[in-house]
Amino acid sequence: MGYSREIYESAEQILAERRKKAEDLAAQRKSAFYGVCPQAAEIESVLSRTAIIAARAVLSGGSAREQLTRLKAENLALQNRLKEQLNSFGYEEHYLEPEYSCKLCGDTGYIDGKMCDCMKKLLRAQAYDSLNALTPLKLSTFDSFSLEYYSNKTDGDARSPRSIMEGVYANCRRYADSFSLSSPSLIMQGATGLGKTHLSLAIANTAIQKGFGVVYCSVNNMITKLEREHFGREEGNTDRIILDCDLLILDDLGTEFRTAFSCAEIYNIVNTRLMTQKPTIISTNLSTQELQERYTDRFASRIMGEYVRVLFCGRDNRLQKLLRNQS
């Protein structure tokens, strides 16, 4: 896959660290065991010598079959003696071997020249982390969301903003708690500073804790990155990551610089993820009519027909917090 060089280097570094840690721990176990069982150290030494002799026999050519058969029998006998020594001290036969995170590739990332699944998963995770690097995920949780900035005042028979937002909060929490790959897509609509980003990231936090691959990006930053990669100014595989992730969160739809490229990319992302039934959360300050005017009737129809609308109301929370802190 076309990940950037930095993503590959990051994944390879993580695997190298895992491999070194496993081998260092195995070396420590060997050192400690040889201290109480010198016979085991002698057996390991002889095993190493038989391996060297076997290699020389192969390289020398000629009739090496008899010698290799004899060395194999000697090697097997030595391994059995080592197992007996380990068992006598209460250890399993693989106690002295490195315990790699991936048993298939030994934390090298490759099996017979082909990329191991552990490497593929690590590349994907590193790509997610790279896209999410500037996201305040840890700061945006359901527990840190406050309803105190929403007014309790009612206008006639209408519900108060706080009452409405209590429902929004509860619905978002239920969505997060029951999130799965078959969850519906959401569009969060409302004015600036009403908590759309906070609650979408709170959902992301919960989904990540469940083991789902989540990508968050502001639409403006996403379009900039896609444009750089599309026209060869930057390496990356952002389009595939965005289309393939378990949950995509597109923040601030409508704030991006409008071009033919941006409109086409946004429609392609929304349409493709709907076709492949992958959930997406969009937050926007635009009304339904403004979505229709800014993009196309077809785009607005796809959103309004397939997404669940979550309407936010109230006054700008960020402004209220700022005023309260200054007073």
UniProtKB/TrEMBL annotation:
InterPro entries: AAA+_ATPase, IstB_ATP-bd, P-loop_NTPase. Residues 182-309 form the AAA+ ATPase domain. It comes from the Bacteria. One of its GO terms (molecular function) is ATP binding. Keywords: ATP-binding, Nucleotide-binding. SUPFAM superfamilies: P-loop containing nucleoside triphosphate hydrolases. It holds the Pfam family IstB_IS21. NCBIfam families: PRK06835.1. PANTHER family: ATP-BINDING PROTEIN RV3427C IN INSERTION SEQUENCE-RELATED, CHROMOSOMAL REPLICATION INITIATOR PROTEIN DNAA. This is ATP-binding protein. It comes from Caproiciproducens faecalis.
